[in-house]
Specification:
Order of helices and strands: HHHEEE
Number of strands: 3
Number of helices: 3
Shape: flat
Structural class: alpha+beta
Helix content: 25-40%
Radius of gyration: 13 Å
Distance between the termini: 16 Å
Number of domains: 1
Oligomer: single chain
């Protein structure tokens, strides 16, 4: 989402991903705050499923519990 939002509008990314514009903005801020600096690994990872369209489409988010933000997953 971060990469797509860097080259498009927040509104377009939100619509294409089925999330709110606020969610896209938070992802941009959280990711940009950590750029260029070495991060400690996530120790406590939480997972949350949420409905984007009630009963039709679900998403999963991973959170860094200690830092209180979305987790950056590097595979």
């Amino acid at each position: 989402m971060y990469q797509e939002a860097r080259h498009s509008t927040v509104k377009h990314v939100a619509e294409s991903k089925g999330v709110s514009e606020d969610t896209v903005r938070r992802a941009l801020v959280e990711r940009s705050e950590g750029e260029g600096e070495e991060q400690e690994p996530v120790k406590h990872l939480t997972m949350d499923e949420f409905s984007v369209r009630k009963g039709q489409r679900y998403e999963t988010a991973f959170h860094d519990w200690e830092r209180g933000r979305l987790a950056r997953l590097e595979l």
